[in-house]
């Protein structure tokens, strides 16, 4: 049973890392669930302080994920249409065969969103698209760093208790 829980935990942490790039999957909370499942094994003792601190960080990052891109968009003169265009561009960029589509898509999506829905001139739309893109990149980087730290904590917890590799009942 412990082996199954460790694999489920690792799967959740990797899904969280993937979720740091995909807006449909909340990366840090999913990775935190992986840490929680790890603590449900018999080999790893339940550590409420550890789980509480990491839960706080996961929730904080989850909330900031919605705030940071809008701050970037607003600071550079963008609108809600630019932020929505960023998310649509992200999906298109992920699915496209273009190299670095995941980076190009959000920028182009924000630019199109500003040009089409706000009827902005190209210079204003470009500036707003840059702001939206920078907010998206900052938010994604922040989520990625936290989920990789959660992976490191998983590995540390797994190997700090040496008997976990031998107790798979």
Domains (count): 1
The helical percent reads over 70%
Largest sheet properties = none
Q: What is the N-to-C succession of helices and strands?
A: HHHHHH
* Low-pLDDT residue spans: none
Q: What integer value in Å does the Rg equal? A: 19 Å
Please state the structural category: mainly alpha
Question: What is the number of E strands?
Answer: 0
Please supply descriptive tags for the structure shown above.
169 residues, mainly alpha, 78% helix, DUF456, membrane, transmembrane, DUF456 domain-containing protein
Write up what this structure looks like.
This protein is mainly α and 169 residues long. It has one domain. The protein is 78% helix and 0% strand. Helix 1 (2-19) packs antiparallel against helix 6 (122-160), helix 2 packs antiparallel against helix 3 (48-75) and helix 2 runs parallel beside helix 6 (122-160). The longest helix has 39 residues, at 122-160. It is elongated. The mean pLDDT is 84.
In short:
The chain has 169 residues and is mainly alpha-helical.
How would the blueprint of this fold be written?
Blueprint: H1 2-19, H2 27-39, H3 48-75, H4 80-95, H5 101-117, H6 122-160
Helix pairs in contact: 1-2, 1-6, 2-3, 2-6, 3-6, 4-5, 5-6
């Amino acid at each position: 049973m412990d082996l199954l829980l460790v694999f489920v935990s690792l799967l959740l942490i990797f899904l969280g890392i993937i979720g740091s790039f995909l807006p449909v999957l909340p990366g840090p909370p999913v990775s935190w669930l992986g840490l929680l499942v790890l603590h449900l094994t018999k080999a790893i003792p339940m550590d409420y302080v550890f789980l509480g601190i990491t839960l706080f960080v996961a929730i904080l990052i989850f909330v900031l994920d919605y705030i940071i891109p809008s701050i970037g968009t607003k600071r550079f003169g963008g609108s809600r249409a630019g932020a929505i265009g960023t998310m649509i561009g992200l999906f298109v960029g992920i699915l496209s065969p273009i190299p670095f589509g995941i980076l190009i898509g959000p920028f182009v999506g924000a630019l199109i969103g500003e040009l089409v829905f706000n009827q902005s001139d190209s210079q204003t739309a470009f500036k707003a698209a840059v702001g939206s893109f920078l907010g998206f990149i900052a938010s994604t980087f922040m989520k990625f760093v936290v989920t990789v730290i959660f992976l490191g904590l998983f590995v540390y917890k797994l190997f700090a208790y040496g008997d976990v590799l031998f107790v798979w009942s």
